[in-house]
Write a structure and sequence with these properties.
Radius of gyration: 17 Å
Distance between the termini: 16 Å
Strand order of the largest sheet: 5-4-1-6-7-8
Number of helices: 10
Helix content: 40-55%
Strand content: 15-25%
Shape: globular
Order of helices and strands: EEHHHHEHEHEHEHEHEH
CATH topology of the largest domain: Rossmann fold
Length: about 230
């Protein structure tokens, strides 16, 4: 049976902090809102921006959507490319592709941006399935985005013995919690935007400091399956 590995994007494959935070500041300033402290701004990295504006800036949903539209003016033209791949990501993608994993992306970033970013870094060919946020389809939060990715991959969650075959790799609690709830093996990466404490509290099954750790985790799980 095919194994499946599903990656988050921001904080997992790419370091997109610069573009997101500069675009956030641009949007808030445009409407005269105070810029939150840097520590609070970091909490915007991962969940939907509209949710974060309501949670951390006290906005109504209408205000948050207005600011998000302004955010998109900068992010959609400049910010999405203020971004870089984390070290050895291409090697990791090549490994799982060569080992015949079904490889997917599940991100709360709008899918159109996600595809442009993968194209920008020339890594689109590694992915069999790409799913991002799509308000028209009701895909906003990580769990429903991940569920669609799992469905599109078309592979079983477990083999005939009940061993799980789908991995979810991400840097925030939203990735881990969604992965756990949907029956994936959750891998939390500590080089991204979530803290180790956050990932532990979300019950990540594995914590990885870098891509080498991810490779070792996959190899370990493969050995366990063969036993």
């Amino acid at each position: 049976m095919n194994k499946t590995i599903i990656f988050d994007l921001d904080g997992t494959l790419t370091d997109s902090k610069e573009g997101i935070l500069k675009s956030l500041e641009f949007a808030l300033e445009a409407f005269g809102y105070d810029i939150p402290p840097y520590e609070t701004q970091l909490l915007f990295l991962g969940p939907p921006i509209v949710d974060s504006l309501q949670q951390h800036c006290g906005m109504t949903i209408e205000q948050a959507e207005e600011v998000y539209k302004k955010f998109g003016e900068r992010y959609g033209t400049i910010g999405k490319f203020e971004n870089q791949l984390y070290p050895n990501i291409i090697d990791l993608l090549a490994k799982v592709k060569n080992e015949h994993y079904t490889v997917a992306l599940a991100t709360a970033k709008p899918e159109i941006y996600a595809r442009e970013i993968l194209d920008h870094f020339s890594i689109t060919p590694y992915f069999d399935v790409i799913v991002g946020a799509n308000h028209k389809e009701g895909l906003i939060h990580k769990k429903e985005i991940l569920q669609k990715a799992i469905d599109l991959c078309g592979n079983p969650l477990t083999d005939d013995t009940g061993r799980r075959l789908v991995y979810m790799v991400g840097d925030r609690k939203y990735d881990v919690v969604s992965g756990n709830e949907l029956g994936c093996i959750s891998i939390g990466v500590t080089y991204g935007y979530g803290t180790e404490k956050e990932l532990i509290e979300a019950n990540a099954e594995y914590l990885c400091e870098d891509t080498d750790d991810i490779v070792m985790t996959l190899d370990l799980e493969e050995m366990l399956i063969r036993r």
